[in-house]
Amino acid sequence: MNLLQAAQYSANGFTVRSNQGKRYSPEKLNVKWIGVHYASMNNNGMTDEERKGEWEAVISLSNKSKKI
Question: Strands, E, within the chain: which ranges?
Fold first, then answer.
């Protein structure tokens, strides 16, 4: 998924992981609004490569992560 889709997951309470392996909790991204093509959130020092790369949502189940 792209960063906009990751922002949508984050706004719904999911932790997301970037193509660099960094995890961003909903509190860390702090999505402020989501539009059709853009979202406003904290960038937490993301690089351009990280922003443009693939993202995934993560579900934590008793200290084990499952990719969705």
Answer: 15-17, 23-24, 33-34, 39-40, 56-61, 64-67
Q: Which of 60, 57, 16, 8 is nearest to 34 (CA)?
A: 8
Look up the pTM and report it. 0.81
Residues 6+ away with beta carbon under 8 Å from 26: 10, 11, 13, 14, 15
Residues 34-49 as b/e (b if ≥16 CB within 10 A, e otherwise) read beeeebebeeeebeee
Assess whether pLDDT exceeds 70 at residue 20: yes
